Structure formats: structure tokens, C-alpha cells
Amino acid sequence: MGQNRAVERTSVLSSYSTLLPVFHVPAKSFSLFFPHHLCLFDHTYWGERMENREDLNSILEFLPVVLRSSALFWPSQVVEALKALSKGPEHSKVDSGDVLFLAISDLRQSLSLSADSLAFSTADGFSLYFDDLMSRAEANKWFGEILPALADSLLRLPLMLEAHYKSADSISCVGVRDGLKTGLRLLKSQEAGVVLLSQELIGALLACSFFCLFPDSTRGANDLQVINFDRLFASLYDNYNEKQENKIKCIIHYFERICSSIPIGNVSFERKVLAVDQTHNYIPHPNAESWSKSVVSLCLFEVCSSGLIEDLSKEVHEVDFANKYFGGGALTRGCVQEEIRFMINPELIAGMLFLPCMADNEAIEVVGAERFSQYTGYASFRFCGDFVDKKDTDRMGRRKTRIIAIDALVNPGNRQYKHRFLVREVNKAFCGFSDPCKSHRYQILFKDDHFSEAELDHDIKRLKSNSDDVLGISQPANFEDEVGIATGNWGCGAFGGDPELKAIIQWLAASQALRPFVVYYTFGLEALRTLDKVTKWITSHRWNVGDLWNMIVEYSTQRSKNETHVGFFNWLLPLLSSDDPMLLDRNKVDHLP
Fold first, then answer.
1. Alpha helix (H) residue ranges in 357-402
2. What is the distance between the terminal CA atoms of the chain, rounded to a whole angstrom?
3. Cα–Cα nearest to 514, from 464, 448, 579
4. Spatial separation of the C-alpha atoms in residues 344 and 134, rounded to whole Å
5. Assessment of whether the complete model's pTM goes beyond 0.90
6. pLDDT digits over 386-406, tens only?
7. For position 366, what pLDDT does the model report?
8. How far apart are CA 150 and CA 208, in angstroms?
9. Under a CB-based contact definition with an 8 Å cutoff, are residues 382 and 242 in contact?
């Protein structure tokens, strides 16, 4: 199949190359600017010059555009090629997957991007999808309408970026978050921060991914995921399966939607960091003793044996069972919970451009990503049509969809019961579930001195009126206090974690983060059939975070020493049935290992 496609591609090369000439010149050497008649701003009145911006300079090597004299632009031959594509197949002659890949190759060569860096079967993948798997009617619409619109979006990318950086200067954070910038930049590990992007800009960035225009030679060295779509298409050809085809269908549908109606909202991407040094700008990093002594009440816990996290109507933080590399295998062969979420909410993919992998004390929160696709199945994932996202928007134009990416231990085996790994997992969840604007409240929770629940409640209430929104946009004082957590079998399944342990760990983390409730989807997992019974018993006996943490530690100590081989629920249930008053004695519980 590959040899036949190569012959076909050669036969169309001569007619196509006369329309899109290639000049193999290093992109950074061009002195020709993006056409001035398209510029919206006079760069001399911008304040800080573009080349002096720390945010832009941190991300520039990962972008395909060129910066010169405070202007961003495409090299001239890229402009001409995109103009041809924007005029449709009658002008560009791009009317098949084969010729589309030739156009992509020429664009990459004009940007001095090596052909060798693309996955080997990329050309065959594009041809297979657009020439064989797409119907003729769908292909006509794609090449006649969608592809030209994407090319037009790319033509406007430099101006979108310039407008983005200008608007980023007008958004600042207040209170403990004062001075936090929102411009597109590399959000490095251990640097808490926010990037706020318009949906239109995200669409243009994902068009770059589709055309495989992002430089990738230094991404691995900076702990960044792949961002071009070459492996997505190559995987389709190398080892075809319907899940991979349906992943691409979701992406294609997204492009069809944004080309028919440009979205006008915003999406924010935030790196959260637990601070070891207890600075005011970060969420405090609790140690084992902090968990053991916590007197925070456990939040409400609702168990759902069916349903999906993303379908919950309540206002919640929705947990992404993430890989430490944001997006996991979304742009390769992956197709589990995180990858599926990235397909139905493709704007999440933009975060893969600038978010290096997460450390143990980090999490990522995305607010505003729109959902575009319906789907069915999990192991048998299928795209099944359009989805109209009716979520309300906040004052920043972000949909009230909050997605929390937290990565669990991978194949932890017996080590997940060791004390330091328990602390790692509960702190990872706490980082994701926490609200950075409540850092003062969390500092009170983790004070070294031990005090009563009444004293704690008084101190927290005193601070509630001082909560600040992360982007400096005022919200009702109790706004975040009403937003709970929607989660499920995080760290289980492909990750190999203990479902009972992970469920309790997430409950502890949500409670300590002062979330009002957890909605837990078991997805019918047999190991969690008694979850509702166990959590109701614990709640009825008014255990707090410290009580439950100490029981988890006691169980895990026995498990790691092979002193017990039963699950946590079965280990706990005999004690529950006896209603042993020892378990309700706070002083005795505190002295558990």
C-alpha cells in the first residue's frame, strides 16, 4: 500500500510544485515581514517591545513564526503557500490526502523543518484517512471549505499572537496572585502560573498542529509532549483500528465547527505547585504529620455506579486521570480516559504546546475548554456526532468547565502502600483539588500547632471574604466554596492502582482542599461495590480527615508488611460491624502509626 501511494504522490508533484514554490532558506534569516496591510497595531505604541518580552521569548523556539523588529510574521514563501491553500482546490490543486501531505511537506521545508522528524508513515496516514476512509462528499467539503479556512486562520496567526500579547498586559491578578502574567509562554515545572488564550487563537495553533508546522527538535529536551499531528495519522496507517480513526474524526469535526463559526470565548491553563518553602504565592505542601493531625471535616461523598464525569450537570472540577505528560497518548495511539477527553474537548491539546511534564508536587487546571463531540464506548471508543456545549461562561468568557489533570503512580504494585507513596498520592490530588486563592486558608489548616475543629472553623470563616479569583475578576465570596469534585477510578485500570485506596485518598484530598462534595463514578467496577456503604458509615460516625488518614496508614502498613491481603474495605468492615468505640476515640486514633 505504501509503495503505491508513493508512486501516486510522485505523479502529482509536478503540477503542485509550480503553484507552491519552495526556497530552502533558514526561517530566522528572513527580513520580509508579514504584510503590513494586515497589521492591526502600531508596534511603537505597545510599551514593551515584542523582542523584550520574557513570555514570548520563552516559547518562541517552539513556534513556527518569526520575530523581527517587534513583529511576528511568516516567511514570504509560507505566506504564498497559505494564500494558495486558502483559495481552495481549484487554485491550490490540493484535493486529496496525497497532495495535502505534499503541501505540508513544502510548508515544513519553507520553515527549515526536517522531513526526517515526521513519523515514517505520516504520508500514508493522511492518504488513508482523506482518500479511503472519508466519503467523497465529506472529502469535497473538507478540501473545498475546511482546509481553505484553516489556511486563512494560519495566515492570521501572527496577528492573533500580537493581539494576544497586547491583551495579556492588561490582565493582572490581585491579592496574593498580584503580578501573575497570562501571556503564552513556557509554563516550566515548579513555576506556578496561568496562560489565557482565546478560542480563536487555539484554533489557529491546532491548525499548526494539523499541518505539522511546530518545530520539534528541542521539545523532548524541555520535557514537552509531541504537538504535531503526524503520529496521530501515522498510527492510523501502521496499525489500523477503529478507535484511532474515530479519534481523528473528533479532530476533523472540531475543525469543521470552528471554521463554520469562530468561537469567541477564552480558555485558561494553570500550573499549580505545592510549595515546599511555604511561600505566600503557592499552595502549601503538607507533610505526613499534617495529614495525621488534620481536624478538617470530611466533605459529602456521592457514589454513582453509572454515568460519565463530563456529563454531570453540577458545577464541579472534573478530574482528568492524567499522564505526567499532559495529554498522554492523545496524539499517538492512546485511547483511555485522558485521551478521550482531549478528543471531545480538543482545545485541551493546546496545553501540550507549552506545559512540560508534571512533577510530584504539581497539577494542571484548565478552565473553559469547549466540548464539540458526542461519543460512545471506552475500549470501543466511537465518535457519534456533534455536541453543543451549553455550559455558562464566566466574566472572562471561559465556559464553566474546569478540568483537573493529576497523574497517579504508574504500576505501583506493593509500593503504593508505603508511607511516602501514600503521601505522594494524597498531595498530588490535593494540589489538583485546591484553589490557589485559598492559600491563606490552607496555611491555617497546616499550622504546626494542633487546635480544635471549632477554632479551625472560626479562622477559615474569617478569611472567606478575602478569596480572590485567579485572574483578578471578582466572584461572589463563596463562589469556589460551592464547586465540588467529579472523579472516578483515578490511578486504576491501565495505571494499576488499588481502587479502594485511591477512592479514599481522593476523598481526603477534596476534604482538605475545602471542597463541599465529591461525586464519584465507579463505572461499575466490582472492587468498589461497597464504596457507598463504607463512605456512609464513616460519614455517620463524623470522622475527620486525620481520623481517616490514620486508618489508611494503619491498613497500608499492614499491607506492605504482608500482614493482611484483603482490601481496605474488607479490612475495615469487621471493625465497622462491631462498632468498636475505640475507633471513635480521637486520642487513640491519633496514635495509630
1. none
2. 63
3. 464
4. 19
5. no
6. 999 999 999 999 999 999 999
7. 98
8. 9
9. yes
